[in-house]
Amino acid sequence: MESAREIEAVFVGSNACDIAEKDACLEALLPLNPIKDPGLAKNFNRVANGLWRVNHAPHIRVLEKLLFTPLDVYYELQNGAMFSYVKFNFFGLRGHLCASGSYSSVDAHTCTIEWEKIWTDFEQKEPSREADVEKHWL
User: Fold this and answer.
1) Model's pTM, two decimal places?
2) Is the pLDDT assigned to residue 102 strictly greater than 70?
């Protein structure tokens, strides 16, 4: 197994590492997870709440290549509710792609995300929330 510093280097920085390499590093980290049955809500809710910067999102990395722009992804988790936003700057057009929904347990090792609403906003310093409908474009 690689050292923690080698594994960290795969995820930190420009996200230039190959997706397969990130997947392999995540697999190497799984046995080190101190949470037994991490897919169960009673276990992941102890550590999930908060704002998380997403580093490994293969579908977003593909979108970056198609749009020729970096995308910065965040998940905000709170007791089963989820808010996500992707910061973008597409040829001077700045904004956020936003989504809200929920996350829950499938089994002892698997969680699921269900998006219920998706919208975008432009030229906002902070991502708009679901209730800020006057700022939504979609």
Assistant:
1) 0.71
2) yes
The answer to whether the Cα torsion of 115, 66, 136, 93 is positive or negative is positive
Alpha-carbon separation of residue 85 from 7, 45, 99, 138 (angstroms): 26, 21, 6, 14
pLDDT at 1 over 50: no
Structure tokens belonging to residue 130: 């679901």
Residues in CB range of 101: below 8 A, 6 or more apart: 81, 82, 113, 114, 115, 116, 117
What end-to-end distance do the CA atoms of the chain give, in Å?
45
Are 46 and 39 in contact, with CB atoms under 8 Å apart?
no
What span, in angstroms and rounded, lies between the C-alpha atoms of 40 and 48?
A: 12
